[in-house]
Every structure is written in C-alpha cells, then in structure tokens.
C-alpha cells in the first residue's frame, strides 16, 4: 500500500465520494481517503493517472509520503489562498455592479455580475454540471442549479451573492479541519528526523529509519531521543512530555529506558537502540492517534447515512415548492421558482456532516497532548456515557509496593537496630519497605542469619537469638497479652504485620500496607464531580485491607478476595446490573477484565502491553488525567449534540420560511454559512487547553 498526503481536501462529503469512485477502479477495493488527517492510502497496483483524475475533479493534489511521514514541511494551502483572492475580487466586482447599475446598460451590469459569480463559483459550476449529467445529486449539484436558476429568472445580484457566499462557505468548511490537522501536525513535530550513530568511536548523523536494533547512539543536551533505547553511559534529566504529557523532567541513569521523541535536558548520554523507530512507543502512539481520528462514532455513521438520503429529498422538496403553489394555488411562477432555488441552497448538508468530525478530532488531539491516548472517537463517545468505573487496586489506586504505615515499639533502644540488621541484606519488597522506614542508620552485620520459609528470619548477635517475621516465627515465650492485642488490632485495621523479637521479649512490630497513590483520593472526588456515580475497587486482598483502602479514598463499592478470573466475572455482573462499565488497570495483569469491560483504560508509561490491550491509555504512571479526559469526552458529546441540533434546526426554520414564501437566496446561503461557522468554532473550541490543564502533573 502507498500513502499520500492530500492538499486542497476541504470537504468531508467530497472525500467520501472520491473514495467510493476509487474503490470502483481496478485494485481499488481497499482505497481509503482519510479526511480528518488529510491522507490517502491506495494499492501500489492502482493506476495513478486514474486516481489523480478523480482527485482533480475536486481540486485535490496528492504527494507521496516517504517512510510513513512527510519528507518536507511545505505548506499546501495555495489553493485556499487563491480561493480567498477570487472571493475578494468577486466581492469588489459585485459592489461595482450594484453601485453602477443606474449608469450602465443592462448587458454591462449583467457582464460584471456574471464575471463576479464566475470567479467565485466556476469550480462548483463545472463539478455540479458533471454531476447533473450523471444524475448525481450533491452540494455542488444543488449550488449549480441554484446559481443558473437565479441568473435565468433575472436575479443576477442575488445569484452573484450566492456564488460569493458559497465560496466563503467552502473555505470555512475546510478551515475547521485544517486547524484540527495543524494541531495534529504539532504532535508530529516531536518526531526526530536524524540520530547520531556511534560506531567504532566515530559519530555520524543518519536518518532515524536507518537505525537498527543494538545500535549505539549519542544523545547530546537538547537532542531528541531517536527511538526507544536503554542508557549504557551517562545520566541526565529527560523531558518525556511528548509521550506521557508530563512536563516535569525525569532523572535517568545507566540501565534506564528512554522513549523515542523525549528530549535530553543536560549532559550527554550513550544509549542502545531497543526498537527501530517504526516499532517505537512514539510511532505507535502517533499511528494510533491518526487511526483514531478516522474511526467513525455511531453518531457519525448515522449522519453519513442520513446525508445520503437527505440531499435527494431536498431536491424533491425544492421541486414541490417550485411547482405546487403555482399549479394548485395560482402562485406566481417567478416567485416560487425563486423559493425553490433558495430551498436548494439551504439543503446543503455540509454543516451537518461537519457537526461531529471536527469535535471528535479536537477531543482526541487534545487528549493526546495531555498524554492520554484514545484509540477512536467511538471510545471518546463511550467514555462520555459511562457512569461506573471499576479500578484494580494494586498498582492502580495504590503504588503496588509496600510501605510501613504504622509501628508499635516496646524497646526503643533495640527495635530499629535489630530489625535493620536482619533486613538489610534482603531483597524482599517488605524488607525494602522496612529499611526505607528505618533510614540511613549505620548497621553491623548479624553473626548468623537464616531464612525460615513462610515465616521470616532468624539470627544471632552477641550470643543472643533474634526473630523477625509473622506470628508463627515469634517464640511463645516472647509474647505478652498487650502484644497479642496490638497484633490483632493491626490486622483488624488491614495491615500486614511484621514482628521483631528476642528470645523472651517482643521489641516491636511494623504495620505494612500497599502505599496509596497521592492522587487516588482526589481522583475519586473529581470523578464523582464529573458525573461518575459508581466507583468500584476490585482486589485480590482480604476484606479488611480492601475496606480500609475504600474508606480512605471514598470508593462507592469494593470487592475483595478476587482472582484474575473473578475480576472478569465481576465486570460482567456489574455490566448486567448497571449498564456500561469502564475498567482501569495496569494493562498487564488486568488484561482479561480490561478486554471484557465496555471500555478498557490502561496506565503504565506507554508500555506495549498497555497500548495494545486498552481502548484508552494513560501514558503517565498515574491517574491524574483521567477526570480531565472524562470532562473532555463529555464536552465533545455536548458539542456534537449541539452542532447537530443547531444545523438541523436552522435548516428547518429556513424551510418553514420557504413554505410561507419568505425565504430569500441570501438568507438561505447566510443560514447555511452561519451553521458551518458555528459548528466549526464549537468543534475547534475543544482544542483549547486551560493554563491549569497544561500545568497539571
């Protein structure tokens, strides 16, 4: 398949028609015209001359894209600029004709109006004329009939206004999508073009598509990381905003992973390439964002279907408006022919077709800038409708690593020292949590240290025996009634208990728990504020631990003691009970539940598994952007609904005026242009990020 960048593509309806024509060509069954991203994908076997012939009918030009992205940054808006010049000249000629009407002969006035109309409307006229001969009724056909009809019945001035305003309308129709594409182009700017390849001690600059697995690259301060890599020498802070949406730099050292497209802030790094650019996280993200822009929502599919029947119905309605009043009620033919022409103009489906895509693309692009990858407009629409979200606990609402949350000390002099001496050489996560809690105390080594499976540790120091672990590891002689009560209370509160004791005394105990993420409590409050009525926690932990976490962060419902298969079953039950449900997890352990939920939301710093398994991916390693994404989804849904209602409402009002005989040509074109302007502005408004949003960490 070959990929082309299209310039001059400003009409969604026209894009659909061109794609339909291309699919009728030899080897064209898989041809795609992606209006939202301004691209065309066709088979290498297709005859390019036939493809270009179809494109030229709509004034569209195609240029081959190299390596999956444009090999230049030229601006292709020349066609739009010439259209503006033509409109300006036409407008000047219109006013000249209007003000000199009394002083010029009829043929002179007609000539100026004709030239003015031809300048703005000749492309539409020729396209519409071809369509008429093919009995194909679209917006160009409607405008051509209206334009010719206006001149035939002697309304030269109004016919010229129709041509000029339709030219403006055509420009505005493409303006919204051009702006949305520019926003997408801003995302593409993070793609590095070259890399400093280090080979045999010599550095050479090469295009990124020449990099291979295992190559070593030199990344200087200010350079972009060319592709996913691992640091083999040096340390620095790296800006990963292009991938995760986080503006705060991340400290990196030898062994740490780098994302392609991130920026080295200072120092020089040597890194080994772990993925060629086409397989890198950045390439996958950009590809998925582009694909997402072309995925039609149920609303868009309905509009497309509606528009196919809408235009022929408008043509029929215009004919009825033209002939019924004169034939049945004695109306003047000239007046009702005029009204019929006005109906043709107001029947333009452009504003209706634009109601959804500009808003959807804006929502997806804005979310991508925030580090949230949404794989399609359908998922954005789904998120806006969702009222319940289930969260996996470990690694999602919590950090997924244990911390000491509580301690009870009976022997101040020895508790920390003996605990540290026994845990300092262990790599167990709980041992690390205890050492982090104790701090940088200088500790000697235990004389003897043994591990007792399933219980804990035993050791000897200065001829005395010590024990660390669960209740079973502690000698019976060490226990006191108070110690047993304290252990019971810690367990009641949902802690995992680690006890340190000598042969005859308990020195103290630690209450261990999985650390809550800092944002979890605020996250739940914000989601409630955004209209999520049922927030659920799913966990394999025991009841008391789950209850404690749920109370701390304000969870509505929780289910404990669940195996991975149980989580899947619970998601199905919740769906059956309460309707659509979203599931948030880490994209690895929770993949069955994520796949089962109506909407799978994964988090995890852009890992391959997260990107592949979920419908929405939070590229940061936290949930802070989820409420904002819900808010954006709801705004997109509102804007799409408003745009559809406004576009249809304006047309219905104009059609009612036509039935009463009060609709004029300029009113019709202004109503149609007004609808296009409003739906475009509303759709683009979603792109604007607030200052607080940009600063959100």
From TrEMBL:
**Would you name any one GO CC term?**
plasma membrane
InterPro entries registered for this protein in UniProt: ATPase_P-typ_cyto_dom_N, ATPase_P-typ_P_site, ATPase_P-typ_TM_dom_sf, ATPase_P-typ_transduc_dom_A_sf, ATPase_P-type_domA, Cation_Transport_ATPase_IB, HAD-like_sf, HAD_sf
Q: One GO molecular-function annotation for this sequence?
A: ATP binding
**Keywords linked to the UniProt accession:** ATP-binding, Cadmium, Cadmium resistance, Cell membrane, Ion transport, Membrane, Metal-binding, Nucleotide-binding, Phosphoprotein, Translocase, Transmembrane, Transmembrane helix, Transport
Q: Name one GO biological process term.
A: response to cadmium ion
Uppermost EC category:
translocase
Family from the record: Belongs to the cation transport ATPase (P-type) (TC 3.A.3) family. Type IB subfamily.
Protein name in UniProt:
Probable cadmium-transporting ATPase
State the organism named in the record: Listeria riparia FSL S10-1204
């Amino acid at each position: 398949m070959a990929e082309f960048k299209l310039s001059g593509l400003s009409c969604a309806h026209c894009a659909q028609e061109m794609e339909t024509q291309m699919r009728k060509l030899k080897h064209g069954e898989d041809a795609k015209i992606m209006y939202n991203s301004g691209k065309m994908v066709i088979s290498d076997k297709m005859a390019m001359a036939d493809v270009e012939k179809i494109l030229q009918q709509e004034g569209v030009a195609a240029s081959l894209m190299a390596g999956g992205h444009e090999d230049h940054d030229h601006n292709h808006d020349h066609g739009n600029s010439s259209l503006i010049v033509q409109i300006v000249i036409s407008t000047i000629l219109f006013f000249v004709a209007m003000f000199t009407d009394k002083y010029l002969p009829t043929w002179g006035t007609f000539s100026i109006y004709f030239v003015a109309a031809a300048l703005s409307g000749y492309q539409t006229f020729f396209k519409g004329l071809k369509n008429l001969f093919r009995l194909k009724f679209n917006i160009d056909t409607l405008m051509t009939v209206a334009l010719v009809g206006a001149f035939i019945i002697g309304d030269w001035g109004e016919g010229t206004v129709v041509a000029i305003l339709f030219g403006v309308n055509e420009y505005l129709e493409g303006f919204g999508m051009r702006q949305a594409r520019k926003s997408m182009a801003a995302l593409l700017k993070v793609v590095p073009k070259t890399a400093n390849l280090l080979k045999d001690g010599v550095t050479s600059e090469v295009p990124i598509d020449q990099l291979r697995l295992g190559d070593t690259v030199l990344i200087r301060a200010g350079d972009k990381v060319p592709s996913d890599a691992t640091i083999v020498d040096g340390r620095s802070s790296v800006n990963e905003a292009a991938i995760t949406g986080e503006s705060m730099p991340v400290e990196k050292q030898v062994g740490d992973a780098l994302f392609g497209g991130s920026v080295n802030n200072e120092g020089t790094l040597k890194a080994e390439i772990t993925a060629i650019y086409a397989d890198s996280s950045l390439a996958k993200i950009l590809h998925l964002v582009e694909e997402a822009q072309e995925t039609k929502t149920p609303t868009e599919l309905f509009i497309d279907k509606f528009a196919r029947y809408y235009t022929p119905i408008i043509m029929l309605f215009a004919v009825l408006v033209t002939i019924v009043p004169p034939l049945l009620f004695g109306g003047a033919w000239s007046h009702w022919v005029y009204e019929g022409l006005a109906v043709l103009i107001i029947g333009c489906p452009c504003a209706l077709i634009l109601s959804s895509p500009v808003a959807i693309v804006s929502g997806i692009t804005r979310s991508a800038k925030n580090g949230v990858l949404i794989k399609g407009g359908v998922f954005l629409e789904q998120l806006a409708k969702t009222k319940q979200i289930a969260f996996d606990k470990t690694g999602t609402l919590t950090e997924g690593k244990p911390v000491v949350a509580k301690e009870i000390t009976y022997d101040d002099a020895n508790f920390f020292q003996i605990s540290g001496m026994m845990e300092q050489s262990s790599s167990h996560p709980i041992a690390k949590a205890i050492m982090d809690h104790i701090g940088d105390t200088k500790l000697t080594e235990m004389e003897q240290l043994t591990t007792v499976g399933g219980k804990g540790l035993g050791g000897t120091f200065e001829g005395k025996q010590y024990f660390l672990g669960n209740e079973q590891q502690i000698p019976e002689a060490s226990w006191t009634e108070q110690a047993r009560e304290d252990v019971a209370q810690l367990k009641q509160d949902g802690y995992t208990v680690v006890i340190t004791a000598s042969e005859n005394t308990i020195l103290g105990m630690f209450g261990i728990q999985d650390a809550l993420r800092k944002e979890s409590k605020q996250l739940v409050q914000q989601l409630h504020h955004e209209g999520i009525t049922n927030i659920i926690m799913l966990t394999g932990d025991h009841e008391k631990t789950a209850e404690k976490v749920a109370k701390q962060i304000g969870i509505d419902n929780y289910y404990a003691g669940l195996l991975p298969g149980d989580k899947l079953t619970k998601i199905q039950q919740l769906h059956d009970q309460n309707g659509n449900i979203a599931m948030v997890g880490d994209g690895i352990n929770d993949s069955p539940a994520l796949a089962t939920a109506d909407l799978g939301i994964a988090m995890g710093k852009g890992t391959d598994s997260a990107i592949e398994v979920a419908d929405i991916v939070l590229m940061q390693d936290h949930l802070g952007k989820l409420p904002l994404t819900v808010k954006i989804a709801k705004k997109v849904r509102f804007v799409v609904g408003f745009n559809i209602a406004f576009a249809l409402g304006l047309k219905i009002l104009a059609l009612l005026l036509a039935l009463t005989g009060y609709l004029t040509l300029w009113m019709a074109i202004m109503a149609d242009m007004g609808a296009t302007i409003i739906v475009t502005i509303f759709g683009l408004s979603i792109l604007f990020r607030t200052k607080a949003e940009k600063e959100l960490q």
